[in-house]
Amino acid sequence: MSVQYQQYFPNVQDDGSEIVRYENESLPVKTICSSWYSRPRAYINHWHTDLELAYCSKGHMYYSVNGEEVKISEGELIFINSRQMHYTYQKDTVDSEFYCLIVHPGLFDWRVSEKYIKEVSSPKVPPYIVMSIDNIREKQIIDCVVNSVRANSKDENGEKAFGHELEIKALMYKLLMHLALRVQNMDNPLSSASKKKLETMRRMTGFVQKNYAEKITLDDIAEAGIVCRSQACELFKRYMNKTPIEYLNDYRITKSTDLIAHTDMSITEISLACGFESSSYFTELFHRRMNMTPRDYRNMA
Length: 301
What we know:
Radius of gyration: 20 Å
Number of helices: 10
Strand content: 15-25%
Structural class: alpha+beta
Distance between the termini: 22 Å
């Protein structure tokens, strides 16, 4: 793999968590303002230690969090806590817009914010919380997310406003304060058995994400989770609504979309780099998942 393409193959931590790539490592905040259908997306179930918040400003959107479907309607925000398996997806043809914010806990001065970070990411806090703009306290959280996304955006010349780093950092501390207030005295009903199953899923999905470019079997995935084949299939069905091999192929397709859109690698090169043994099989699965061929997807860029 050429060095110039390495950015499209993000690393995974030893514990299987995704490493979120930040534009500015000294300001680990990632913001997205997007709408569905500007380009088909291939999101895949993943998890990371970073906090994630997504606000729906138009239409609605769907999230899967630890296997549970959550619909986020216009005017609502979802807060996804650290280490939760999740992804967003399209389910219908509603025109939707959303603001997304991902922030690494390392952004905050630990000496100042340790107790607030612990409050927000405590095991007592549920895996996700849905908030509404109609609630005064929750609206303050939503405003922080929207204003952070706007502060981090570029103008028509491709430049960000002077001082945007300071504005974003100030908003992040304000966001942390409001989140800590919001989650006080909450109680996570997740049982110890469910927590154990989720930890097994983290190990298996982490194994797939680290090794998807290699030949992987169902036995390999089950071994990574320290469970038998049937247990692995049951857990993937419960939390992903798909088989382990289907998840593997979906993850490979997801990784291929960046290479198709942003590199000049051939379709055959991309299929091999993403773990497929033949470009024809890759094209078949890609069409099934994205409703278009890899070449059609490239032509949309």
